[in-house]
Amino acid sequence: RVLTAATPNVTLNILIGVLAVVIETNNQWFAVGPSSIKYHEGILK
After folding, report:
1. What is the rounded end-to-end Cα distance, in angstroms, of the chain?
2. d(C-alpha 35, C-alpha 32), whole Å
3. 6-43: per-residue pLDDT in tens?
4. Domain total for the chain?
5. By Cβ atoms counted within 10 A, which residue in 8, 12, 33, 40 is the most buried?
6. Residues 27 and 37 sit within 8 Å (Cβ to Cβ)
7. How far apart are the C-alpha atoms of 21 and 44, rounded to whole Å?
8. Burial class (CB in 10 A: 0-12, 13-18, 19+), 37
9. Of residues 12 and 45, more confidently modeled
């Protein structure tokens, strides 16, 4: 109920925060190419 009552922006910020943690903890998976990490960081910003 809390999530459904939250505004889209708040929900999006939470998802982005979770995604950022996932990227940091699984950076080896994203490190396929030399600019992989920078590419995903650019999306988050």
Report:
1. 28
2. 8
3. 577 888 888 888 888 877 776 655 555 555 556 656 66
4. 1
5. 40
6. yes
7. 11
8. middle
9. 12
Task: Name the burial class of residue 39, with classes exposed (0-12), middle (13-18) and buried (19+) by CB atoms within 10 angstroms of its CB.
Answer: exposed
C-beta pairs of 24-30 under 8 Å, 24+ apart in sequence:
none
Please give the residue range of the domain that contains residue 27: 2-44
Q: Distance (Å, rounded) from C-alpha 25 to C-alpha 18?
A: 11
Do residues 21 and 14 lie in contact, with contact meaning Cβ atoms separated by under 8 Å? no
Distance CA 6, CA 28 (A): 33
Structural contact between residues 26 and 32, judged by C-beta atoms closer than 8 angstroms: no
